[in-house]
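Hi F.,

I've been meaning to write this up properly since the lab meeting, where we talked about keeping a consistent format for the predictions we share between groups. The idea is simple: the sequence comes first, exactly as it goes in, then the structure tokens exactly as they come out, then a line or two of notes. No screenshots and no reformatting. I'm using this chain as the first example so we have something concrete to point to.
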Amino acid sequence: MDGKLILRKGTEKEVIDKELLKEKMITNILYFFIVISPLILTYFIFDSCIEKNKLNLSNTISLGAIFATFGSAIISSVILFQSDKSNRILSNVDILYSDILQEEKWTRWPFIKRYDAHTLLDGKITSNILENPYITFNVGSHNINISIPTTQEDFYDLPSFHIFKQMKKYNNYFKTNIITHTDSISDTHFSDVGDYYWAWNCLYDIWKNVIFFKISKLIVALGFSIIISSFIYSFSFIQINNFINLILKSH
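Output, unedited:
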């Protein structure tokens, strides 16, 4: 079970999967708010915690140090969680290939982009599309294809939330179908119902932990944003506060 790198020539660039585009747009919006929110919140906390007559560099640095410590604590604890999830994913992928599928593991080369296109000297466009290996599962009414991620790059250029949502939605359908219709594996490359069942459970756990991994990355970004905000306001809060007050007074 191998992935594919498809090379094509044509006049139009390939269209990226709509679900992936939607996820990337939502992720970018979340990162935007993760960066902006601590900047705004930290300003108001500084403004409310430091009295006007005690507004000096010593007090802003002291308060900034508290915020930086809080941000560092978030990052340290979440990175441990993130590392655990990453190791679990990679371990599950190894189990899937070696013990369940019993075939050589396919691993994506990280330098290869999922979608890439170049305009040639003759004006034509050549593009490449990377396709991960996938397993087809019969969920009763239809089949669904579930991709196998092998590197962290796959977590972000495959529609992970859509994939896991599909697996969660059809989890009971698949398990009911495989128990009541053991012949459902006839149109798959599986010869054993048990392997088919464990492949589903393994991929379910893989994609569930990919979601946890991606959420933890957002929380780490929040921690970094808190540290950056504390650094900015530690040394520049007085100037920023005076500038904002000047603008408010002019209106």
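Notes:
The chain is about 65% helix and 10% strand.
The first strand starts at residue 4 and ends at 10.

If this format works for you, I'll send the rest the same way.

G.
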